[in-house]
Fold each of these.
Amino acid sequence: MDVNVPDARLMPDTLAPPAAFSGRGRRFAWTLLLLAVAFGAVPAAIVGTGSSYLAQIAITTMIFVILSASLNHVTGTAGLLSIGHAAFYGIGAYAAALLSTRLGLPFIVTLPAAGLIAALFGFLVALPTMRLVSIYFAVATLGIGEMIYVVLLNWVDVTRGPMGIRGIPPIELFGWQADTLLSRYLAVAVIAVACVWVLHRLTHSYYGNALRALREDDQCADSMGINVERLKIESFVVATFFAGIAGALLAHTSAYIAPDNFRFMESILILAMVVVGGLGSLPGAVVGALFMIVLPEALRDIGDYRMIAVGATMFLSILLLPKGMLAEGTALGFVRRSFSRGWATIAGGTPVGWK
Amino acid sequence: MSNTLLSIQGLTRRFGGLLAVSDVSATIAKGELVGLIGPNGAGKTTLFNLITGFTPPSDGTVTFDGQDVTGRKPWQIARMGMGRTFQNLRVFPNMTVFDNVSVGAVGAFGQSPWRALVNGGARSRAVSERSWEALERVGLTAQAGDIAANLSYGKRKYLEIARALATAPRLLILDEPAAGLNDTETAELADFIRRLHAGGVTVLLVEHDMGLVMGSCSRVIVLASGRKIADGTPEAVQRDPAVLEAYLGVEDDAA
């Protein structure tokens, strides 16, 4: 049932099949550069300065990279506006804190358990809300987020309410304890890089294209054979799983958590990272998290004015770059080219498809 | 009747008191190019939605390739091999031309997060090749890397058709493909559809443009006020008094 090319007038002069993609050299260049920053430059700076303040910022940045990248997965890529992401971050943090302080479970168990418990809640929330669209879904996630916050605050028997949970043991793997500044940072960085890598594989693929199709026009995706409801639930579950992982990292690196860490404002902060970085752009989500964590710290010298400066920067960046610092289209092309994820290059050197 | 690809029996849809489609039965055999026409409000779109699973019928059945698909979801029906385009252009505007088409191929091949994670491999290559092939068929390979929203109106039409072709449809349903095209473009489209059909694709053409349907289709089904009033060759249908009445009204002086 092969049809020949229909009409010579419709055919441009690129009948030849596209050239197979070869970007191996550049892929390694970018991968190495990123790994060198995360595992070379930053640790060197922490050791060199011996500053616990710097280490703390680096750890917080890594945790927010996970939060922002995971929210981008569901909100930027799949187009489901969630404004309750911090609640799943909280569920993960409390799960890890309670499992380790009450049951004495090791980090190797509490980390995946925190992700899975957050994902389970994500699944339960997703089931009834997936039929809702746009702003209605957003309001539902807002409500769920507030509900979870109120439970954390008032279920004193389990969560100790506003007093929070203290004495959460540090990250520990097979007898190796992350009790120095450097080792704490390194443990978090390894996990954050792994999380981003997983999200990278998921979004920068044909599976990712199906998710983007949901965002663009879910009815149309439906008639292309895409199981819309299942994909929406999957994307929400994946996002909440990684939020839970981020929560576990917070619990085990700060030793103390309280409900205030997971308020509505945190959800908005994560959303701002995604939007400033570029909705639907994974590199953008990473850059957005860096920007929103590092900028307020860098501006500490101007005291109380710094939050005004941060707000103004956000406002201006969205005004001047409405699609974000690294817009989705640019980011996808960059990933295809520089991480060699594209299928082929067409005439003009544009990479297309996914490997 | 193993040669029957699509068979609808007594298909009926009520919206409150309105009978949008009433007791319509028809069959499409493998390899046919069938037109479905009717004046505005005849129930063409409703019938289309009943066949593709977007609207559940109040009564009647839809059988596709020997299987009862009544009440199945659109994606299930699409995956069985029923591809479609939309009347009011619905490309994915912020995705590239190639990525648009790939969604059709992904729908046909199935998708899972595990596969994306562990290995794209052979499955991804199959999706890529299928998408490229579909773009070649409509002649949009040069635009493969462009954002779909930047294409001209006419090219977006072909993009939609390519996306539907990437699902490897055994039945391709085109919903008013000539809407918004000028005469030259319509003629080109007619030519394209005929070639597609000659290549072995079974096509159901839902149209307003009489010229396109009468010139291309071997059989024409006419709907009026939700009922099927004619079903036959273009020549027979054009002479059918019921069809003339539906399109032109009854001549008063005949009474």
Amino acid sequence: MHVHFLDPYRPGHSSIHQLDARVKFILTLAFILTTALTPIGAWPIYILLLAWAIIVEILSELGVGFVLRRAVLALPFVLAALPVIFTVPGAALLSLSIGPWALTITLPGAERFISIALKSWISVQMAIVLAATTSFPDLLTAMRAIKVPRLLVAVFGLMWRYLFVLVDEALRLMRARLSRSGESDREDLKSGGALIWRAKVAGGMAGSLFLRALERSDRIYMTMLARGYDGEVRAAPLPPLSRRDWLTLWLCLGLLFAILVGAALF
Amino acid sequence: MHHSIEIEQLYYSYPDGHQALRGVSLHIEPCEKVALVGPNGAGKSTLILHLNGILSGNGRVRVAGLPVVKENLGKIRARVGLVFQNPDDQLFSPTVYDDVAFGPIYQGLPPDEVRQRVEKALAVVNMSDYLQRVSHHLSVGEKKRIAIATVLSMDPEILVLDEPTAGLDPRARRSLIKLLDNLDITMLVSSHDMLMVRELFPRMVVMDNGSIVADGPTQELMANEALLKAHGLEAP
């Protein structure tokens, strides 16, 4: 029994899947940067960016619904921007009074909040497409190609590899606990135990998981040493990009730049 | 008395689509000791996880006289002592006492009775001196015995063990076999240890590829070399 639900990668053969991971990675970053730099209230530009995202989603054959559902997961983070509704000065739209406090929603504040929400929603969609169409090892290669520090890439790689092992381990622990969570046949007894006791048990489980992760990391390190690891992460050279990949890269970067210029003039 | 396992036409697929059980039927009488053998990935562990409702597939499973359905899970988990292959999964508390006491405390037994149960269970596995030891620092053999004590403290009617002798040195293995031999309780044990199977279990069930391919007296099946070979097993 293994855990798969954490892995966002959806195998496929669409043109987006086949695009080189480095190109996808750079373009996703550029897309998110463009979206972030687009000024507040530039609605036509947002529609353009959203259309772009949806075209990519259709090309990726993941299904627009799939990406939109996943994108909902990012919505709670947008709430962090909620205070701007009240803090940006401008024409009052609505006034709420809660006890001695009065909160005023301003028009520019609402505009800014909706812009931020839209921009993060569009950006998240593109990030989801990247993660769903690119396997993690390919993503690591892409990070290496754009000169993310090698040690950091190695840490990401190890984390990805052992996260599943750790989650599996946690599931097995919980399963063992469940197996012994029984109910006596005696009518006068209430099963479940006291809340504090249950919390203690959960704490013990977390502790033992931590100890095991620590021990495992020691063992992994020893297996690395045994194969000659000296603290320096080395990697095989990257294969060259095809002409089609180069073309896609420059074309999309050009388009994004044009959108950015358009947004600045807007 | 109804200490038995009755499984009829059990099917189970994992969420990723892998079909792990393809119509398994198995009956085990009270106080019968049965070995479950078969290659890795045959579905032995999956089958075992159905006995206390951790997994639930399509089919009929009755354990200790109760159908394995949601309303009965609490009672069933108290009656089936399931010992996992890796004792580290089983032992999640800081001390041996806490771990062995988990089942009885969960059932709501009064503290005196919990203590009695723990002492009795540890005495059965010959680990009475380990009451306040830290589970983390025990040897594999010791952990295995404590893991068995953690379910014995629940006074189960059926003991189910997944690969009990895996990773044990000869002495720890021998003492575990002796321990299992002395327990007078319905037992279903999955194992690759054919020597132990021959020594301890009069009846043997062979699983391969999600179904039971043979079920009969151990002596007879062990003599059938063609059968064992066909399912990746070896006679001891």
Amino acid sequence: MLKKTSWLLATTIAVTFGGVAQADWKPAKPVEFIVTSSPGGGTDNFARVVQSIIAKHKLMEQPIVVTNKGGGSGAEGFIYTKVAAGDSHKLTFGTNNAYLLPYVAKLAYKPDELTPVAAMALDEFLLWVKADTPYKDAKSYIEAVKAKPDTFKMGGSQSKDTDQTLTSLIQDATGAKFIYVPFQGGGAAGVQLAGGHIDSNTNNPNENAGQWKAGAITPLCVFSPTRLQGGVKVTATMGWSDIPTCKEAGIPIDQFQMPRTVWLPGGVPADAVAFYANVLKKVSETPEWKEYIERTSQTDRFLAGQDLKTFIASDDAKNRKVFEQEGWIAR
Amino acid sequence: MENFASLLHGFGVALTTYHVMLMMIGVLLGILVGVLPGLGAPNGVSLLLPLTFTMDPVAAIILLTSMYWGALFGGSTTSILFNIPGEPSSVATTFDGYPMARQGQATQALTLAFLSAGFGALVGVILITVLSTWVAKFALRFSSPEYFAVYFLAFASFIGLGAASPFKTIVSMGLGFAFAAVGMDTVSGGLRLTYGFNELLSGISFLIAVIGLFGIGELMLTMEEGLRFDGIRARVKIRDVFKTVATLPRYWVTLLRSSAVGCWMGITPGGPTAASFMSYGLAKRLSRRKEGFGRGEPEGVVAPETADHAAGSSAILPMLALGVPGSATAAVMMGGLMIWGLNPGPMLFVERPDFVWGLIASMYLGNIVAVLMVLATIPLFASILRIPFAIIGPVIVVVCFIGAYTVAGRPFDLWLALAFGGVGYLFKKLDYPIAPLVLAMVLGDKAEDAFRQSMIMSRGSLSIFWSNGLVATLMLIGLALAFGPLLSSTLGRLLKPKTSSAVA
């Protein structure tokens, strides 16, 4: 009798999930979440939100252990993942740094030694200036920078990372020339802008939202193909959806976004990849996830399987072009 | 006045049986992780974080901050008893705290440390209460040149402190800078001094170095001296605790000066480590009993502990108001804030006053709870020293290695700690000071980043360090501290022949 019920249950589950192979593989021991940033960083928040959602909705039977391995801009975590080849109980959280880091530094892993599982969101980049500057739109600011090359300071987190890549793209597209100042993180770059020590930065919405709300800084445009979601006003007059795209505002860059990615080590069974992709897909459908996306003003976009591979290939090629041009490729 | 009304409201939020119970649990857990070197506050708070996901934000932050206070107190305990600082900021406490313990005054040292720490923390919280709006704005005036000036000040106040030759101090500091440079460089994005070791990518953790240099190095020396702890057989009397409490007012000048240094470094934000070193340096320079420092001078315990906690508690303010964590623990807590759905930043005070003022009120209460609880545990900890070395020695080795492993969970760190133990032993044998190395390791890469960022901003001109009143003042004080002793001795030498000739 019992046997029959469980068999029935299994069939029901298999039917419900449309015959996805996930039923074949399940974690047999606690799963380790490897975070490729230090505690408190953007990737850390991403992983911990996923952890809290999985725990709340009981999407996995096995417990989750989160470890931060943020050394070397995250390289520490990816190398740890590479060494764990074949271990299906280690899930690594990162951004596009997973496949971009090995270009700019000589590291002991190659991107193809990791197995991509999913991309869960795209973080946006905006061009921000101090609120009390005379520049009311991106065009007038860029004109001012062009008039006095090498005097305006653009702040960002770290060197040869997303912020500096974007700065380089802006310089190429407009002919303006900035002094790029690398700080320890986006938060520091945000405070430096609010204090008027730098002239602009390209922070993610989440990193600057507090200062914007307080009226210290203001966004000029967003490097996204469409305007951001969210009709609620952040300040008295503006909300996220009122920010023009940079293309509208006269900076000819269509799109610059950073995917939040999840990886497994190399050499893991396809069933395991499918299992985690399925769990993460369910995570991305919960109200808590929507709330996280809205709070951090990211773009909700779930990619797995072939879509993910295509996305990575094109993002990789785009960034590589900038790296080559700037001479950042480490040999 | 508005702030006081908010604070009273905050006490209303924080003073419930549930919250006070959470404080006690937090402090106890904190002492536990603080006593184990390597486990420390950041790791303890990360471990506890998942449990708070389901709690309401006020209760969650009260639990986490109480654990932080507990860990800070626990860190001082091991500094004094075993010469193993649990946190970077309690390194300066070892200079006089450990000699005191070896002379059989462990109870006094612990009592003084806890009381002055509690005093510093309270001054820090009062400052936050009174000046919260102003302080948040002031911190915005700090950019890379100002940061560099603050770190320079910390180094300068420490120069010429040790009894060792200045050249040995420079060698030790230079080694510290080299260790600090290992890993990925923020400014260039390149790898430095990793020699292809994956384990060195994230740099050398300060804690590993300290566990080796102080803990293991000290044990090797003790073993060589004949397997015993000298003079720590003194009996532990509860009465000693009360007697020491009565002596505290004697150090009022040190307490006030160190609180001022701590608050200043907490909000600027140079951080608790710079604060404790600077305060120790100043106390030694200005004390009437200079020669006692380093040999068990109570003032040498009071000064760093007061500044450490004053800075630690006043540093919470920049975290809340600017969203910039001043320490690793603050960074973990900030991550927590975001998961609980709060956005640290200037608007937090406006949007969630109940949370902010509940937290500030809990800082008053949490510190009082923490001081009472640690004072109660003093006899317990002090009597650990009465255990024969043959038993406690191996236990310390085990604790050291467990600590080294917990920092990042890497077996490689165990070898590193052992190597640092050898270095520490050699340093002691050859009479090289260890403190400058530690200071350079903790503040070295920050100072370097700030200097190079300043150079990028000014396009290579040093004049950026005199470009505004704030940074110029900081640099002048720093230079005066660095070259003051040299100048006064040169002047003294120049003037001496004159006076003698005048007499003749």
Amino acid sequence: MDDIKRKYVIPGDVITTGPYRAEENVHLHGDKIIATTVGISEIFDSGVRVIPLAGMYIPRIDDFIIGIVKSHTSLSWELNINSCYAGILPAQDVFGRDFNPKVDDLTSRLKTGDLIAARVANSDRSRDPLITIADRDLGKIEEGELIKISPSKVPRLIGKRGSMIQTIESATKAIITIGQNGFVVVSSEEPEGLLKAMEAIKMVEEQAHVPNLTERIQQMLGSNSE
Amino acid sequence: MGVKKTDIVLLDDKGIRCDGRKINEPRRIMIKAGVLKNANGSAYIEFGENKILAGVFGPRDVHPKHLANTDRGILRCRYHMQPFSVGERKNPAPSRREIEISKVIKEALEPAVMLENFPRTVVDVFIEILQADGGSRCAALDAAAVALADAGIPMRDMVSACAAGKVADTIVLDINNEEDQEGQADMPVAYMPNLGKVTLIQLDGVLSPQEYEKCVNTALEGCKIVYEVQKKALQEKFFGDSQ
């Protein structure tokens, strides 16, 4: 980890010059590699990328996301996935291959406002992203509180190898489901644990750039339980 | 145009302008990023006596749908002056001047914003002039660029704008309202400082080729000063004291 050089950047900042590969959120201008968004730049091996601190969720194939049902047609549901594009969930995914739009009523399975855990099946920006729930652990979320955080702060909420989320879950006994799109569902049998977990998630979002955040969260959760 | 006879001394013998500045000195600039909760990105700028708010939405669905572009996003921009922004009440309906400025700001931002990443969407930029004092299109552009960066919209570079002009036969930086009314020329310039590209240049008045060159260079120096302020505003919002 020590050989990664990190730096705070804003759009237009020249991160480095030389034979590097331009990866996410950077662009190549001559031999300069320039940041395109506010964030933290990383130079690793031969690549350069910027981890954004602001911005919208861009769907990527295989991302685990949480969607809110917005509306439906006779063949599919339209989901709010916190992106500039609406997610499309085809009815066959829920009803199976013998789905018949004349007989099956889509609202009998998912209504407007329902939350679903899903995966991005296909996304190429020329069409609205295709969402699927045909996998293990995917489907309608029956209970829990929805929190919206900035999608750029999702990696911080998960932490290194899940350290942050494990800290919060074990201290509050809540179950936290994080979508890559910045929608987070918290459920718990104890209302107190639920409130504490929500507070911790909001704190992570507000202080995402502060070092030693896991320790701070531990302190906050620890002092609350005393 | 020629020099007009007025009561104001635009430039005295010591090279001091009507508001006490030197010829190469810009007005006081203050920018704050992220001032509005409901917009995706926002910025507030005080540029001399100019007070301007900019809010950015997007990328989001285009309405009306026929405006959408299938291979890239579109940028929409509205520059609007509040009725109380000038001495005499301004009719809030968009005037000829506001429509023009909306267009030039949009065209000055377009080269910087990477709209090709977001086909079928729109980025909306709303600019409200709360108080106007000459050079408001430059100040509006500066605020809009910070608001776009605050919204996390990918940009090739920041856009920094500053005006220069000719007052009492001298090229000066950052024209204020009096100098704009009584001066001989006014040239707003917008510039992408890291790419070294000009995205807006307008000229109102008459300049000789030598004066023109000097005026452009003076304005570019101003843009670089503005860029530092924009940078500071974004760093303050995102990195706080952890820098």
